[in-house]
Design brief:
mainly alpha
């Protein structure tokens, strides 16, 4: 993906960070980054337990969202776009 005037993938950082914080239990931030397996694990884990595992996945999403937002654009792209680090 090429971003005119910016770093490839850095345009996703704010969207992914906010989705991680607000919708972390559903794994929306994972799907946006293209991490389908991790997103399905979070979504199915939350739904299959009738929401009992949602707080756990919500905390994971919160932590990941904060991590995404606190990294520089270069760090974010290197870690999550280029190297595809799926968890934390």
């Amino acid at each position: 993906m090429t971003n005119s005037g910016g770093i490839d993938g850095a345009d996703k950082k704010i969207v992914v960070g906010i989705c991680g914080i607000l919708l972390g239990a559903l794994g929306v931030h994972k799907f946006i980054l293209g991490y389908t397996t991790e997103g399905v694990i979070m979504l199915v884990g939350s739904l299959a337990t009738c929401g009992f595992a949602s707080p756990i996945f919500g905390v994971i999403g919160l932590v990941e969202g904060i991590l995404y937002l606190t990294k520089s654009d270069d760090e974010f792209v290197s870690t999550y776009i280029t190297n595809k680090k799926g968890w934390f």
